[in-house]
Fold:
Amino acid sequence: MIELGRADGSQIDELMELTAQSLSQLEIKEHFNVIKEIGRGKYGRVLLVTHRCRGTPMALKVMPKSSTKLQGFLREYCISLHLSCHPCIVGLFGIAFQSAEHYGFAQELVIGRDLFAVIQPKVGIPESSVKRCMVQVASALEFIHSHGLVHRDVKPENILLLDASCCRVKLADFGLAQKRGTMIRYITGTLPYMSPELCSRALPEGQGEEDMGTDPPLSVEPSLDTWAFGVVIFCILTGYFPWERCTDTDEFYQEFADWCHEEVEEEVPPLWRKFTPEAMEMFGKLLSPEAGRRFTVGEVRAYVEKDWLKKQQQAPEKDKVNPNATATSNEARVIEDREKPNKT
Ligand SMILES: Nc1ncnc2c1ncn2[C@@H]1O[C@H](COP(=O)(O)OP(=O)(O)O)[C@@H](O)[C@H]1O
Ligand SMILES: [Mg+2]
Structure:
């Protein structure tokens, strides 16, 4: 396998061209026994298959040609392939193809579910499991960033579990990954995980790209992943989203952003009161509204030995979690529904 030597991701374009020239044409059922669908996201489906000649089990990601550009498919495949040697990133077999209706590639089969599936709504998952997961995801993201790339879709659905207790996890889905420094105008992603600098550019529903206004394009930077990483930690520790989106119309976000901007020690917003001061210090750095002041993902390691959640029995009454008790009477959004496929 060719090493992605340069840290600016510049070999990706060349690899995409080479892959385009040798992309095999095959029909899925002639080469693979399709056993069942094991996953579905916004852009593709993942099928559990066995290779017809060798019997090897694989997870085949297939994307309809009708909604997938060849360049986008090639980028996802090439970026995935060249990061797949990391132990916390999903492995690939080096098989990419097109059929009459699909583009596809073969991935290592990860037999546990994804992290989204094990979050208990309104409860989350145990702190020790959260820490084990996030240390591994941080290591995967550091590796991605060190190759001059940004994942751009860090969320529980894209973190795959090798076992039920989250001992080992792998980051997947490089469908939105891009080279650091790519200038973007049109924003895609999942709203609760999108940083304020992205949300201010997100299209209001029902508007097309031509209505984008005059906002300057945004440079894709690792700090976008840091933000999503911080939101994921909140989600899996609590079973709630911290906010819908980072705009001044979202009162959950405003409360948090106000707390971040206070010079003096302020009382933390209600939704955050179950966390220790050390955890709040970490969140303040991961979720700094100013991208330039954010942690790098690896800095989370300095906090894993500390308690993140207050011990329930010691928590004063005012600190007991009541996610509905905010400045407004709105309810925090519970993590329960997956995003519908093909919804932006
Ligand atoms: N290698 C794999 N092994 C097992 N399940 C997988 C694998 N890759 C993806 N999945 C499952 O399929 C879902 C969709 O795959 P993903 O690559 O995220 O597609 P999309 O780009 O459409 O979001 C994931 O959320 C996960 O549940
Ligand atoms: Mg996905």
Observations:
- Residues 38-44, 46, 59, 61, 90, 107-110, 114, 157-158, 160, 172-173, 175 surround adenosine-5'-diphosphate (ligand 1) (CB under 6 Å).
- The two ends are 34 Å apart (CA to CA).
- The first strand starts at residue 24 and ends at 25.
